[in-house]
Structure formats: C-alpha cells, structure tokens
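Section 4.2 – Deliverable D4.2 (structural model, holo form)

The reporting period included a commitment to supply a predicted holo structure for the target in complex with zinc ion. Inputs used:
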Amino acid sequence: MKALRLEATGRLAVVEAEKPVPGPNDILVKVDACGICGTDRHLFHGEFPSTPPVILGHEFTGIVEAIGSGVKNFRAGMRVTGDPNISCGLCPECQRGRVNLCRNLRAIGIHRDGGFADYVCMPETQAYALPAGLDPLHGAFCEPLACCIHGVDMAGITTGQSVVVLGGGVIGLLVVQLARLAGATRVVLATRNAEKRRLAEQLGATATVDPSAGDIIELICGRNGMLPDGADVVIECAGVPETIEQAPRLARKGGTAVILGVMPQGAKVSIEPFDLLFREIRLLGSFVNPFTHARAADLIATGAIKVEPLISRRIGFEEALKTIANPAPSGEIRALVIPGL
Ligand code: NAP
Ligand code: ZN
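Output (structure tokens):
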C-alpha cells in the first residue's frame, strides 16, 4: 500500500509499505480521508516526540475492510472514525479516570502507524461507528472535534453565557459551533484572516474581531466594547503568546479561561497573578479527548456540527508531503489527504 511515512526528523517520504494485518482485537480500515493537523508539522520538525519510522496521520476515517477473530462490535463494510489516543488502563492516572493524562499514552499516527496511508489498523477499542450514508470525508473531523468538546466541557458553558474564542483555525471554528450548541448566546471570535471571520459568522459567531486592528481587550471588554464586563468563558485556540496572555484578561470577574492552543515546550508567557486572584479567574488547560470521541462522532453523524465549510483542499500523498513540510498557507483551514488522489 502507499503511505506517507516520517523516516526521521525532517525527512518524510511517500513509500510502498506493507498492508497491515489485523491482530485478534484489531480492525483494518480502508482510509477515505485523514486531516493534516499542526501537530504533523511539529512531528516533522521534531518539536513533538514521536517514534519514526512511523506513518503519520491521526485524524482518519474510512470503511472496515477486515476484523480480527476477537472483534465484537465491528464488521467489514462499516464506516468508522478512530480515536488515535491509546491509554494503558493501568497507570495511576488511568485508574483515576484521567485517561488523557496516561503516563504510557501512545497515539496512532505518532507512535504507531497512522492514517496517511491506503489502510490503517487499530484496536477495536479505538473505533467508533459512523452512519453508512455520511459523507466519506466528514469523519476526519471527529478527532479535532473530540478535543474541542473536552475544552468546552472544562469551560462548563451554560445557557445564556458569553464566550470569546481566540483563533479561527479548525479548532476555533469548531469551538464556536460547540459554544452555540451549549447555549451561549454571544460568541465573539478573534482571528486576523477576514475569510475566517466571515466563515465564523456563518457558523454561529455573533460577532468577530480582527486582533490586528487594535487592542482586543479594549475592543471586546472596554467600556464601549461588545462585552463590557468581559466574557463568562474565554477559549484560547491559537497557541501564540498574545492570545494566551489575553485569555484570562478577557474573562469577566469569576470567569473561566481555557487554553487549547499548544505552545512549544519551555515557552513562557506573562500572566498577572494579582488579576487572577482578585478577579477569581479560573485558568485551565485542556488536553486531547478523554471519553469525548463518541459524542464527536454523533455530532458529525447528525449534522449538528458543520464540517464541510472547513475543508480547504483535498490532496494526495505527494501534495501532503509538501504541505506538512511547509507552513500552512494563509487562510487554509483543513487540508484532507485522500488516498488515491
Ligand atoms: P491553526 O489552523 O493554526 O489555527 C490557529 C489560528 O489562530 C491561526 O490560523 C490564526 O488565524 C489564528 N491566530 C494566530 N495569531 C492570532 C492572534 N494573535 N489572535 C487571534 N488569532 C490568531 O490551528 P488549529 O488546528 O485550529 O489548532 C489551534 C491550536 O490548538 C493549535 O495550537 C493546536 O496545536 C492546538 N490543538 C490543541 C488540542 C488540544 O487537545 N488541546 C487539539 C488540537 C489542536 P489568523 O491568520 O486568521 O489569525
Ligand atoms: Zn495509563
């Protein structure tokens, strides 16, 4: 089969690889689509630990082609999405139910072969069924959506609240939609690209802000701002120092700021503890997708979350190689790798 493999840091190749053979508890999936995520670029540059040689791709969907003898809930022909994060079930974190914090966490497409390939193999425990009639590409959004659901759960958004979302990439645009579904009545998205702001408004943002047009603290929670007291909830989805620093400042007294964006290990930002203390701001980090993949699959299966407008390009393995090795083109939301293209 064809696959896009990380051979070593900085070295990606389209290769002819062995078609995987499912073990007793595995399912073999013929891949329909797999999203390219910023993490794939970090893996390429060695900024995120992985174990090459490894086929990348952790946002995959496809059709079950074969199952192992012990598989109980899947059969050939079913449409599925995979949760790439495999926890051990045995470590103290797993035993406390904090599976995303597992000390032996291993991910498909990072530590073992993933979905930038004609076929991917995964333990049955990682698979979730999707309706047969679903658009074959849409299941590729279950993984990023599952991460967003965890962030929105941590924020505890309730009906009638105001939410600020910082960053209009795929994560920000999914969070905007989840915030509306959770009952937020005012959802303000800040991102620099005008096309992304337009899309956010189409997907449910009640207002958008261009952070390059001025001081967004003033624009959003200044005296004449959109939310003069600040937001009940701020969700940071850009992963740059400015937005991490802005997140707690945009929250109202007693409000919550959740950081979803990833900054390089060792990076520092400046936060004012006095402000956190005297305004009782809850500042939280949200990491991957503990027990949220089934809900993500359901939100996409039912069309409650719109993903079609988030597809910027459909590309083959060769184009994917160039896309991962270079910075994301301006305005790109998600490029999907489609085997055979
Ligand atoms: P992305 O496509 O890079 O989106 C982030 C967007 O933020 C950029 O496209 C950029 O759009 C915008 N941005 C940059 N500087 C900004 C600023 N100063 N103010 C406002 N917006 C700004 O990435 P993504 O795929 O959506 O992911 C977002 C972040 O979440 C990344 O850091 C990713 O690694 C992380 N992530 C975390 C988890 C988790 O489990 N916590 C899971 C998946 C992804 P403009 O050009 O329009 O400004
Ligand atoms: Zn564990």
